[in-house]
Amino acid sequence: MWRRSSVVHVVDELSRAQRRERHRVELEVLLVGLAWAAWSVRLELAFLLALLGLQRLVGGIAGWIVAAVAVGVVFAIPMSRRWLVALLRAMHVRRAWARATIDAGVAAGPFRCPGVWSVSRVPAGDVLDVRVRRGQSVGDLDARREHLAACLRAREVRVLRDRGDAARASVLVIKRDPFEDAAPMSWPAATANALSLWEPIPLGVDERGEQVAVELVERNVLIGGEPGAGKSAALSVVIAAAALDPDTRVWLLDGKLVELAAWAPVAQRVAGPNGEDALALLREVRGVMDDRYRELLANGQRKVRRGDGLPLHLVVCDELAFYLTVPEKAIQKEFAELLRDVVARGRAAGVIVCAATQKPGADVVPSALRDLFGFRLAMRCTTPQASDTILGQGWASAGADASDIPGAQRGVGYLLAEGDRPTRMRGYYLSDDDVVAISERAAAARADKWLAGGVGA
Ligand SMILES: Nc1ncnc2c1ncn2[C@@H]1O[C@H](COP(=O)(O)OP(=O)(O)OP(=O)(O)O)[C@@H](O)[C@H]1O
Ligand SMILES: [Mg+2]
Protein backbone atom coordinates (compact mmCIF):
# COMPACT_ATOMS: atom_id res chain seq x y z
CA MET A 1 0.00 0.00 0.00
CA TRP A 2 2.80 2.35 1.04
CA ARG A 3 4.77 1.48 -2.07
CA ARG A 4 1.79 2.07 -4.38
CA SER A 5 1.04 5.60 -3.03
CA SER A 6 4.70 6.65 -3.26
CA VAL A 7 4.86 5.41 -6.91
CA VAL A 8 1.68 7.44 -7.70
CA HIS A 9 3.27 10.45 -6.02
CA VAL A 10 6.46 10.15 -8.08
CA VAL A 11 4.46 9.77 -11.33
CA ASP A 12 2.40 12.89 -10.45
CA GLU A 13 5.57 14.84 -9.73
CA LEU A 14 7.07 13.74 -13.04
CA SER A 15 4.04 14.71 -15.12
CA ARG A 16 3.85 18.08 -13.29
CA ALA A 17 7.54 18.69 -14.11
CA GLN A 18 6.90 17.73 -17.75
CA ARG A 19 3.92 20.10 -17.92
CA ARG A 20 6.01 22.92 -16.38
CA GLU A 21 8.77 22.26 -18.92
CA ARG A 22 6.26 22.21 -21.79
CA HIS A 23 4.73 25.51 -20.61
CA ARG A 24 8.21 27.02 -20.31
CA VAL A 25 9.08 25.97 -23.87
CA GLU A 26 5.72 27.24 -25.18
CA LEU A 27 6.22 30.58 -23.42
CA GLU A 28 9.74 30.83 -24.84
CA VAL A 29 8.47 30.12 -28.38
CA LEU A 30 5.70 32.70 -27.88
CA LEU A 31 8.10 35.37 -26.63
CA VAL A 32 10.59 34.68 -29.44
CA GLY A 33 7.71 34.81 -31.94
CA LEU A 34 6.44 38.12 -30.54
CA ALA A 35 9.94 39.60 -30.43
CA TRP A 36 10.55 38.46 -34.02
CA ALA A 37 7.20 39.81 -35.21
CA ALA A 38 7.95 43.16 -33.55
CA TRP A 39 11.49 43.15 -35.01
CA SER A 40 10.22 42.49 -38.51
CA VAL A 41 7.89 45.51 -38.34
CA ARG A 42 10.43 47.67 -36.47
CA LEU A 43 10.38 50.42 -39.06
CA GLU A 44 6.60 50.64 -39.16
CA LEU A 45 6.54 50.60 -35.32
CA ALA A 46 9.15 53.38 -35.20
CA PHE A 47 7.01 55.54 -37.52
CA LEU A 48 3.95 54.88 -35.39
CA LEU A 49 5.79 55.73 -32.18
CA ALA A 50 7.18 58.92 -33.75
CA LEU A 51 3.65 59.99 -34.70
CA LEU A 52 2.31 59.17 -31.24
CA GLY A 53 5.23 61.09 -29.73
CA LEU A 54 4.38 64.11 -31.91
CA GLN A 55 0.75 63.91 -30.85
CA ARG A 56 1.71 63.71 -27.14
CA LEU A 57 4.16 66.59 -27.55
CA VAL A 58 1.52 68.95 -28.94
CA GLY A 59 -1.35 67.35 -27.02
CA GLY A 60 -5.11 66.96 -27.53
CA ILE A 61 -6.92 67.35 -30.85
CA ALA A 62 -4.21 69.75 -32.11
CA GLY A 63 -1.70 66.94 -31.60
CA TRP A 64 -3.70 64.59 -33.81
CA ILE A 65 -4.03 67.31 -36.45
CA VAL A 66 -0.25 67.95 -36.42
CA ALA A 67 0.42 64.19 -36.75
CA ALA A 68 -2.04 63.95 -39.67
CA VAL A 69 -0.45 66.99 -41.37
CA ALA A 70 3.02 65.45 -40.94
CA VAL A 71 1.83 62.27 -42.69
CA GLY A 72 0.16 64.39 -45.40
CA VAL A 73 3.36 66.40 -46.02
CA VAL A 74 5.48 63.24 -46.33
CA PHE A 75 3.06 61.83 -48.91
CA ALA A 76 2.61 65.17 -50.74
CA ILE A 77 6.33 65.63 -51.50
CA PRO A 78 7.19 63.21 -54.35
CA MET A 79 10.75 62.58 -53.13
CA SER A 80 9.83 61.73 -49.54
CA ARG A 81 6.83 59.71 -50.76
CA ARG A 82 9.06 57.64 -53.05
CA TRP A 83 11.63 57.21 -50.26
CA LEU A 84 8.98 56.04 -47.77
CA VAL A 85 7.27 53.70 -50.22
CA ALA A 86 10.64 52.18 -51.21
CA LEU A 87 11.55 51.75 -47.54
CA LEU A 88 8.25 50.09 -46.64
CA ARG A 89 8.50 47.88 -49.71
CA ALA A 90 12.04 46.84 -48.78
CA MET A 91 10.80 45.91 -45.29
CA HIS A 92 8.00 43.86 -46.86
CA VAL A 93 10.52 42.04 -49.09
CA ARG A 94 12.77 41.41 -46.05
CA ARG A 95 9.85 39.86 -44.11
CA ALA A 96 8.89 37.65 -47.05
CA TRP A 97 12.53 36.59 -47.43
CA ALA A 98 12.89 35.76 -43.73
CA ARG A 99 9.72 33.63 -43.75
CA ALA A 100 10.84 31.92 -46.95
CA THR A 101 14.27 31.00 -45.57
CA ILE A 102 12.63 29.39 -42.53
CA ASP A 103 10.00 27.52 -44.57
CA ALA A 104 12.56 26.43 -47.18
CA GLY A 105 14.73 24.93 -44.45
CA VAL A 106 17.67 27.31 -44.86
CA ALA A 107 17.25 28.95 -41.43
CA ALA A 108 16.63 26.93 -38.28
CA GLY A 109 14.22 29.55 -36.92
CA PRO A 110 13.62 33.26 -36.29
CA PHE A 111 16.79 35.33 -35.81
CA ARG A 112 18.70 32.68 -37.83
CA CYS A 113 17.53 33.93 -41.23
CA PRO A 114 20.28 35.09 -43.63
CA GLY A 115 20.31 38.88 -43.21
CA VAL A 116 19.27 41.25 -45.98
CA TRP A 117 21.54 44.31 -46.12
CA SER A 118 19.86 46.05 -48.98
CA VAL A 119 16.98 45.59 -51.39
CA SER A 120 16.86 47.16 -54.81
CA ARG A 121 14.16 47.00 -57.43
CA VAL A 122 15.17 45.94 -60.94
CA PRO A 123 13.11 45.30 -64.10
CA ALA A 124 12.97 41.55 -63.37
CA GLY A 125 12.04 41.81 -59.66
CA ASP A 126 14.24 42.45 -56.60
CA VAL A 127 17.94 42.14 -55.88
CA LEU A 128 18.79 41.32 -52.26
CA ASP A 129 22.25 41.81 -50.83
CA VAL A 130 22.31 38.86 -48.44
CA ARG A 131 24.70 37.82 -45.69
CA VAL A 132 24.38 34.31 -44.29
CA ARG A 133 24.66 33.59 -40.54
CA ARG A 134 27.47 31.66 -38.91
CA GLY A 135 27.13 27.97 -39.71
CA GLN A 136 25.26 28.68 -42.97
CA SER A 137 26.72 28.95 -46.47
CA VAL A 138 25.76 30.61 -49.73
CA GLY A 139 25.77 27.08 -51.18
CA ASP A 140 22.85 26.22 -48.82
CA LEU A 141 20.87 29.09 -50.33
CA ASP A 142 21.71 28.03 -53.87
CA ALA A 143 20.73 24.43 -53.16
CA ARG A 144 17.28 25.55 -51.87
CA ARG A 145 16.64 28.16 -54.58
CA GLU A 146 13.65 26.23 -55.99
CA HIS A 147 12.06 26.06 -52.50
CA LEU A 148 12.79 29.75 -51.91
CA ALA A 149 11.22 30.66 -55.28
CA ALA A 150 8.08 28.68 -54.38
CA CYS A 151 7.81 30.35 -50.95
CA LEU A 152 8.31 33.79 -52.48
CA ARG A 153 5.86 33.01 -55.32
CA ALA A 154 8.61 34.05 -57.74
CA ARG A 155 9.45 32.73 -61.21
CA GLU A 156 12.97 31.97 -60.17
CA VAL A 157 15.60 32.76 -57.56
CA ARG A 158 19.25 33.17 -58.60
CA VAL A 159 22.06 33.22 -56.09
CA LEU A 160 25.38 34.81 -57.00
CA ARG A 161 28.14 34.39 -54.42
CA ASP A 162 30.34 37.38 -53.67
CA ARG A 163 33.86 36.73 -54.98
CA GLY A 164 35.60 38.28 -52.00
CA ASP A 165 33.33 37.17 -49.13
CA ALA A 166 31.93 33.63 -48.82
CA ALA A 167 29.20 34.87 -46.45
CA ARG A 168 27.71 37.33 -48.93
CA ALA A 169 25.57 36.81 -52.00
CA SER A 170 23.50 38.78 -54.41
CA VAL A 171 20.07 37.13 -54.69
CA LEU A 172 17.92 37.95 -57.70
CA VAL A 173 14.24 37.23 -57.06
CA ILE A 174 12.72 37.11 -60.53
CA LYS A 175 9.06 38.08 -60.52
CA ARG A 176 8.59 38.92 -64.19
CA ASP A 177 10.39 38.47 -67.47
CA PRO A 178 11.76 41.91 -68.40
CA PHE A 179 12.31 40.79 -71.99
CA GLU A 180 8.67 39.86 -72.61
CA ASP A 181 7.04 41.96 -75.33
CA ALA A 182 9.99 44.34 -75.28
CA ALA A 183 10.66 46.41 -78.38
CA PRO A 184 14.11 46.02 -79.98
CA MET A 185 16.71 48.11 -78.18
CA SER A 186 18.88 50.17 -80.45
CA TRP A 187 22.63 50.00 -79.94
CA PRO A 188 23.73 53.01 -77.82
CA ALA A 189 26.87 53.53 -79.93
CA ALA A 190 24.96 53.50 -83.23
CA THR A 191 25.51 57.21 -83.76
CA ALA A 192 29.11 57.32 -82.53
CA ASN A 193 31.73 58.50 -84.99
CA ALA A 194 34.50 56.35 -83.61
CA LEU A 195 35.01 53.64 -80.98
CA SER A 196 37.99 51.69 -79.71
CA LEU A 197 37.88 47.91 -79.62
CA TRP A 198 40.19 48.12 -76.60
CA GLU A 199 37.20 49.46 -74.65
CA PRO A 200 34.29 47.25 -73.47
CA ILE A 201 31.70 46.86 -76.23
CA PRO A 202 28.04 47.28 -75.17
CA LEU A 203 26.19 44.13 -76.24
CA GLY A 204 22.86 44.37 -74.46
CA VAL A 205 21.00 44.70 -71.16
CA ASP A 206 20.65 42.13 -68.37
CA GLU A 207 17.62 41.31 -66.20
CA ARG A 208 18.65 43.96 -63.70
CA GLY A 209 18.40 46.58 -66.42
CA GLU A 210 22.18 47.05 -66.41
CA GLN A 211 24.21 47.29 -69.55
CA VAL A 212 26.26 44.23 -70.49
CA ALA A 213 29.57 45.20 -72.08
CA VAL A 214 32.50 42.93 -72.87
CA GLU A 215 36.15 43.53 -73.55
CA LEU A 216 37.00 41.54 -76.65
CA VAL A 217 40.78 41.93 -76.75
CA GLU A 218 42.43 38.58 -75.95
CA ARG A 219 39.03 36.87 -76.14
CA ASN A 220 37.15 34.69 -78.61
CA VAL A 221 33.38 34.38 -78.72
CA LEU A 222 31.20 31.44 -79.73
CA ILE A 223 27.51 32.15 -80.37
CA GLY A 224 25.00 29.33 -80.72
CA GLY A 225 21.25 28.98 -80.99
CA GLU A 226 18.38 27.79 -83.13
CA PRO A 227 17.50 29.43 -86.47
CA GLY A 228 16.20 32.97 -86.01
CA ALA A 229 17.42 33.27 -82.40
CA GLY A 230 19.47 36.39 -83.18
CA LYS A 231 23.03 35.11 -83.77
CA SER A 232 23.74 37.18 -86.89
CA ALA A 233 22.22 40.25 -85.21
CA ALA A 234 24.61 39.78 -82.26
CA LEU A 235 27.56 39.40 -84.64
CA SER A 236 26.49 42.62 -86.36
CA VAL A 237 26.88 44.58 -83.12
CA VAL A 238 30.42 43.23 -82.66
CA ILE A 239 31.31 44.04 -86.28
CA ALA A 240 29.85 47.54 -85.90
CA ALA A 241 32.13 48.19 -82.91
CA ALA A 242 35.17 46.93 -84.83
CA ALA A 243 34.17 48.90 -87.94
CA LEU A 244 33.96 52.13 -85.94
CA ASP A 245 37.52 51.57 -84.73
CA PRO A 246 39.59 52.60 -87.77
CA ASP A 247 42.59 50.79 -86.26
CA THR A 248 40.86 47.39 -86.36
CA ARG A 249 41.00 45.10 -89.40
CA VAL A 250 37.79 43.16 -90.05
CA TRP A 251 37.73 39.74 -91.76
CA LEU A 252 34.35 38.24 -92.65
CA LEU A 253 33.34 34.64 -93.34
CA ASP A 254 29.67 34.48 -94.23
CA GLY A 255 28.22 31.06 -94.95
CA LYS A 256 24.97 32.67 -96.13
CA LEU A 257 26.62 35.47 -98.15
CA VAL A 258 23.83 37.95 -97.38
CA GLU A 259 24.01 38.19 -93.56
CA LEU A 260 27.20 40.24 -93.35
CA ALA A 261 27.20 41.68 -96.89
CA ALA A 262 26.45 45.22 -95.68
CA TRP A 263 29.77 45.21 -93.78
CA ALA A 264 31.85 44.49 -96.90
CA PRO A 265 32.97 48.17 -97.32
CA VAL A 266 34.80 48.02 -93.97
CA ALA A 267 36.18 44.49 -94.35
CA GLN A 268 39.75 43.59 -95.20
CA ARG A 269 38.46 40.54 -96.99
CA VAL A 270 35.11 38.73 -97.28
CA ALA A 271 34.53 35.04 -98.01
CA GLY A 272 31.07 33.75 -98.93
CA PRO A 273 29.79 30.17 -99.05
CA ASN A 274 32.82 28.88 -100.85
CA GLY A 275 35.27 26.60 -99.10
CA GLU A 276 38.31 27.67 -101.13
CA ASP A 277 37.61 31.40 -100.48
CA ALA A 278 37.25 30.71 -96.77
CA LEU A 279 40.55 28.83 -96.71
CA ALA A 280 42.30 31.64 -98.58
CA LEU A 281 40.98 34.17 -96.03
CA LEU A 282 42.08 32.11 -93.05
CA ARG A 283 45.51 31.45 -94.58
CA GLU A 284 45.93 35.21 -94.98
CA VAL A 285 44.87 35.82 -91.36
CA ARG A 286 47.35 33.18 -90.22
CA GLY A 287 50.07 34.89 -92.27
CA VAL A 288 49.21 38.24 -90.61
CA MET A 289 49.34 36.53 -87.22
CA ASP A 290 52.75 34.95 -87.90
CA ASP A 291 54.13 38.33 -89.11
CA ARG A 292 52.75 39.92 -85.96
CA TYR A 293 54.58 37.42 -83.74
CA ARG A 294 57.83 38.13 -85.60
CA GLU A 295 57.24 41.86 -85.09
CA LEU A 296 56.54 41.35 -81.38
CA LEU A 297 59.74 39.30 -81.07
CA ALA A 298 61.74 42.06 -82.77
CA ASN A 299 60.23 44.62 -80.37
CA GLY A 300 60.90 42.43 -77.33
CA GLN A 301 57.13 42.25 -76.62
CA ARG A 302 55.14 39.21 -75.58
CA LYS A 303 51.78 40.52 -76.72
CA VAL A 304 50.02 43.40 -78.40
CA ARG A 305 49.39 46.31 -76.06
CA ARG A 306 47.14 49.31 -76.36
CA GLY A 307 49.01 52.30 -77.71
CA ASP A 308 51.80 50.40 -79.49
CA GLY A 309 50.23 51.16 -82.88
CA LEU A 310 49.59 47.55 -83.90
CA PRO A 311 46.03 47.14 -85.22
CA LEU A 312 43.67 44.53 -83.82
CA HIS A 313 42.12 41.95 -86.15
CA LEU A 314 38.51 40.77 -85.80
CA VAL A 315 37.67 37.54 -87.63
CA VAL A 316 33.91 36.94 -87.80
CA CYS A 317 32.49 33.65 -89.01
CA ASP A 318 28.73 33.33 -89.44
CA GLU A 319 27.36 29.83 -90.11
CA LEU A 320 30.51 28.13 -88.83
CA ALA A 321 28.82 24.74 -89.32
CA PHE A 322 28.55 25.40 -93.06
CA TYR A 323 32.34 25.50 -93.50
CA LEU A 324 32.84 22.51 -91.23
CA THR A 325 30.40 20.35 -93.20
CA VAL A 326 31.26 21.19 -96.83
CA PRO A 327 31.28 18.04 -98.96
CA GLU A 328 35.04 18.22 -99.60
CA LYS A 329 36.65 16.55 -96.61
CA ALA A 330 40.05 18.12 -97.30
CA ILE A 331 38.53 21.64 -97.10
CA GLN A 332 36.62 20.74 -93.92
CA LYS A 333 39.81 19.48 -92.30
CA GLU A 334 41.98 22.41 -93.32
CA PHE A 335 39.31 24.94 -92.34
CA ALA A 336 38.98 23.43 -88.86
CA GLU A 337 42.75 23.29 -88.45
CA LEU A 338 43.31 26.89 -89.64
CA LEU A 339 40.54 28.29 -87.44
CA ARG A 340 41.77 26.29 -84.45
CA ASP A 341 45.25 27.68 -84.98
CA VAL A 342 44.01 31.29 -85.30
CA VAL A 343 41.85 30.94 -82.16
CA ALA A 344 44.59 29.18 -80.20
CA ARG A 345 47.50 31.50 -81.11
CA GLY A 346 45.67 34.71 -81.99
CA ARG A 347 45.16 36.03 -78.45
CA ALA A 348 48.56 37.63 -77.84
CA ALA A 349 48.82 38.76 -81.48
CA GLY A 350 45.61 40.82 -81.21
CA VAL A 351 43.43 38.50 -83.31
CA ILE A 352 39.86 38.10 -81.99
CA VAL A 353 37.55 35.41 -83.41
CA CYS A 354 33.73 35.56 -83.14
CA ALA A 355 31.89 32.61 -84.61
CA ALA A 356 28.19 31.77 -84.76
CA THR A 357 26.48 28.50 -85.54
CA GLN A 358 23.14 26.77 -85.10
CA LYS A 359 24.72 23.49 -84.05
CA PRO A 360 27.96 23.60 -82.10
CA GLY A 361 27.74 19.86 -81.21
CA ALA A 362 30.94 17.79 -81.38
CA ASP A 363 29.64 16.11 -84.57
CA VAL A 364 29.87 19.50 -86.33
CA VAL A 365 32.41 21.63 -84.42
CA PRO A 366 35.41 19.61 -83.23
CA SER A 367 35.77 19.83 -79.42
CA ALA A 368 39.42 20.86 -79.86
CA LEU A 369 38.15 24.01 -81.60
CA ARG A 370 35.00 24.64 -79.54
CA ASP A 371 36.76 24.43 -76.19
CA LEU A 372 39.14 27.26 -77.13
CA PHE A 373 36.36 29.87 -77.17
CA GLY A 374 36.44 31.66 -73.81
CA PHE A 375 33.21 33.64 -74.14
CA ARG A 376 29.97 31.88 -75.02
CA LEU A 377 26.58 33.26 -75.93
CA ALA A 378 23.75 30.71 -75.90
CA MET A 379 20.66 32.07 -77.62
CA ARG A 380 17.38 30.15 -77.70
CA CYS A 381 17.96 26.39 -78.08
CA THR A 382 15.57 23.50 -78.44
CA THR A 383 16.95 21.37 -75.59
CA PRO A 384 18.92 21.89 -72.35
CA GLN A 385 21.60 19.60 -73.85
CA ALA A 386 22.02 21.98 -76.81
CA SER A 387 22.31 24.89 -74.35
CA ASP A 388 25.01 23.01 -72.44
CA THR A 389 26.88 22.32 -75.68
CA ILE A 390 27.29 26.08 -76.12
CA LEU A 391 27.83 27.21 -72.53
CA GLY A 392 29.59 24.15 -71.16
CA GLN A 393 28.50 21.07 -69.32
CA GLY A 394 26.15 21.50 -66.37
CA TRP A 395 24.96 25.09 -66.74
CA ALA A 396 21.41 24.12 -67.79
CA SER A 397 20.80 22.22 -64.55
CA ALA A 398 22.37 25.12 -62.62
CA GLY A 399 19.66 27.48 -63.93
CA ALA A 400 21.29 28.86 -67.11
CA ASP A 401 19.28 27.00 -69.72
CA ALA A 402 18.81 28.65 -73.12
CA SER A 403 15.97 26.24 -73.94
CA ASP A 404 13.79 28.15 -71.43
CA ILE A 405 13.95 31.29 -73.61
CA PRO A 406 10.53 31.77 -75.25
CA GLY A 407 10.55 31.49 -79.04
CA ALA A 408 9.24 35.02 -79.46
CA GLN A 409 12.18 36.52 -77.55
CA ARG A 410 14.69 37.15 -80.32
CA GLY A 411 18.08 38.40 -79.27
CA VAL A 412 17.81 36.96 -75.73
CA GLY A 413 20.55 34.64 -74.53
CA TYR A 414 22.86 33.56 -71.72
CA LEU A 415 26.29 35.14 -71.94
CA LEU A 416 29.17 33.41 -70.21
CA ALA A 417 31.92 36.02 -70.13
CA GLU A 418 33.87 37.52 -67.24
CA GLY A 419 31.38 36.58 -64.50
CA ASP A 420 31.24 33.32 -62.56
CA ARG A 421 27.98 32.27 -64.16
CA PRO A 422 26.11 33.05 -67.38
CA THR A 423 24.10 36.28 -67.48
CA ARG A 424 20.69 36.29 -69.09
CA MET A 425 20.61 39.29 -71.39
CA ARG A 426 18.91 40.80 -74.39
CA GLY A 427 21.11 42.01 -77.18
CA TYR A 428 20.98 45.42 -78.78
CA TYR A 429 19.65 45.38 -82.28
CA LEU A 430 20.90 47.15 -85.39
CA SER A 431 18.26 47.57 -88.08
CA ASP A 432 19.29 47.20 -91.72
CA ASP A 433 19.31 51.00 -92.02
CA ASP A 434 21.56 51.31 -88.94
CA VAL A 435 23.97 48.75 -90.41
CA VAL A 436 24.19 50.57 -93.74
CA ALA A 437 24.66 53.96 -92.04
CA ILE A 438 27.39 52.68 -89.68
CA SER A 439 29.12 50.77 -92.45
CA GLU A 440 29.21 53.87 -94.70
CA ARG A 441 30.39 56.13 -91.87
CA ALA A 442 33.08 53.68 -90.81
CA ALA A 443 34.27 53.13 -94.39
CA ALA A 444 34.59 56.91 -94.86
CA ALA A 445 36.58 57.23 -91.61
CA ARG A 446 38.89 54.40 -92.74
CA ALA A 447 39.40 56.04 -96.13
CA ASP A 448 40.28 59.36 -94.44
CA LYS A 449 42.79 57.58 -92.23
CA TRP A 450 44.31 55.78 -95.21
CA LEU A 451 44.65 59.05 -97.15
CA ALA A 452 46.30 60.59 -94.13
CA GLY A 453 48.79 57.69 -94.25
CA GLY A 454 47.89 56.27 -90.85
CA VAL A 455 47.28 52.67 -91.81
CA GLY A 456 49.31 49.90 -90.22
CA ALA A 457 49.59 46.22 -91.13
N1 LIG B 1 18.53 41.69 -80.28
C1 LIG B 1 17.42 41.63 -81.01
N2 LIG B 1 16.36 42.40 -80.66
C2 LIG B 1 15.23 42.33 -81.38
N3 LIG B 1 15.02 41.52 -82.45
C3 LIG B 1 16.03 40.74 -82.82
C4 LIG B 1 17.29 40.75 -82.12
N4 LIG B 1 18.10 39.86 -82.72
C5 LIG B 1 17.40 39.33 -83.73
N5 LIG B 1 16.16 39.84 -83.80
C6 LIG B 1 15.12 39.49 -84.78
O1 LIG B 1 15.26 38.12 -85.10
C7 LIG B 1 15.45 37.94 -86.50
C8 LIG B 1 16.43 36.83 -86.77
O2 LIG B 1 17.69 37.21 -86.26
P1 LIG B 1 19.03 36.61 -86.88
O3 LIG B 1 19.01 36.63 -88.37
O4 LIG B 1 20.17 37.29 -86.21
O5 LIG B 1 18.92 35.10 -86.40
P2 LIG B 1 19.97 33.95 -86.56
O6 LIG B 1 20.11 33.31 -85.24
O7 LIG B 1 21.20 34.46 -87.21
O8 LIG B 1 19.21 32.94 -87.53
P3 LIG B 1 19.85 31.89 -88.57
O9 LIG B 1 20.40 30.77 -87.76
O10 LIG B 1 18.68 31.46 -89.41
O11 LIG B 1 20.89 32.62 -89.34
C9 LIG B 1 15.94 39.30 -87.00
O12 LIG B 1 15.58 39.51 -88.31
C10 LIG B 1 15.27 40.26 -86.07
O13 LIG B 1 13.97 40.56 -86.55
MG1 LIG C 1 22.15 34.03 -88.99
What does this structure look like?
With 457 residues, this protein is an alpha/beta fold. The protein has a domain at 201-451: Rossmann fold (3-Layer(aba) Sandwich). Helices cover 46% and strands 18% of the residues. The strands form two sheets. The protein has a ten-stranded mixed β-sheet with strand order 6-5-14-13-12-7-11-10-8-9, sandwiched between helices. The mean pLDDT is 91. Bound molecules: adenosine-5'-triphosphate (ATP) and magnesium ion.
- Oligomeric status: single chain
Which descriptor suits the 3D outline? elongated
The profile of the biggest β sheet is:
10 strands, mixed
What fold name stands as the CATH topology of one domain?
Answer: Rossmann fold
Can you say what the CATH homologous superfamily of one domain is? P-loop containing nucleotide triphosphate hydrolases
Strand arrangement, major sheet:
6-5-14-13-12-7-11-10-8-9
Spell out which ligands are present: adenosine-5'-triphosphate, magnesium ion
Radius of gyration: 31 Å
- Structural category is alpha/beta
Count of distinct strands? 14
CATH architecture label name of one domain: 3-Layer(aba) Sandwich
- Helicity, in percent? 40-55%
Mean pLDDT: 91
Low-confidence stretches: none
CATH class assignment of one domain:
Alpha Beta
Supply the number of helical segments.
13
The separation of the N and C termini measures 114 Å
Task: Please provide the ordered H/E string of secondary-structure elements.
Answer: HHHHEEHHEEEEEHEEHEHHEHEHEEH
Q: Determine the strand fraction and express it as a percent band.
A: 15-25%
